[in-house]
Specification:
This protein has ten helices and three strands; from the N terminus they run H-E-H-H-H-H-E-H-H-E-H-H-H. It is mainly α. The chain folds into two domains: 164 residues, Metal-dependent hydrolases (TIM Barrel), CATH 3.20.20.140; 40 residues, no CATH class. The radius of gyration is 20 Å and the shape is globular. The C terminus is likely disordered.
Length: 207
């Protein structure tokens, strides 16, 4: 089998993408398109310079790119275009199901309503499911450096229904707390930590 045949075979295999941050899927061309639409200046002089910067060297250089890209997302249509561009690209690579994380606080801290973020993303998810056959889960993610209360405030401000997104404790304890309505001491992770500490104490007492 030739390399071309192997690449085609892999491309056509059905796949699931189980962890993707939607803001991180923005590509340079779309970033510049959205910046122009919203009359925003980019810190990079050209698409090519931005693409070159994608070869980041550390966490901070990655975050600089991430927030520069997220900063061009202003309207519901922007969030729709970002999400649809990702879904079309993923489907072309054989992805049939994707589980997408989005960071509302990245946008609400810039004055963008959570309804704007959520509605644009969900509209693309529903349309892609109907037209190109890709299913999806949407997971709300909260920024680690902000407090749990700020996460609840962000959620409450938009009145987003919990039934409209899926959640897992594997990536963020805050998500599990939101789903169960319990704080981290009463939620499953708290019990796991308590069990570990009890076992550790028992081991230390063993002669």
């Amino acid at each position: 089998m030739s390399i071309a045949d192997l690449n085609a075979y892999i491309s056509n295999l059905p796949k699931a993408e189980l962890h993707v941050h939607i803001e991180g899927t923005l590509e340079p061309e779309l970033i510049f398109e959205l910046a122009a639409r919203n009359h925003l200046a980019m810190p990079y002089p050209s698409v090519q310079e931005l693409r070159t910067a994608y070869a980041f060297t550390d966490l901070q250089s990655f975050l600089d790119l991430y927030y520069a890209g997220a900063g061009v997302l202003i309207t519901e249509q922007d969030f729709y275009d970002m999400t649809m561009a990702y879904l079309q690209r993923a489907r072309a690579d054989g992805v049939l199901h994707t589980e997408i994380m989005f960071d509302p606080q990245t946008h609400t801290q810039r004055g963008i309503a959570i309804e704007t973020v959520f509605t644009g993303i969900v509209r693309a998810l529903r349309e892609a499911h109907a037209t190109i056959g890709i299913s999806s889960y949407l997971l709300m993610s909260f920024l680690r450096h902000l407090s749990e209360q700020e996460a609840f405030d962000t959620l409450a401000a938009g009145g987003v229904r919990l039934s409209n997104f899926h959640t897992t404790a594997l990536c963020s304890p805050t998500r599990a707390c939101l789903l169960t309505g319990r704080n981290h001491h009463r939620n499953g992770l708290g019990r796991v930590a308590d069990k570990i500490m009890k076992n550790k104490t028992a081991i230390m007492k063993t002669p």
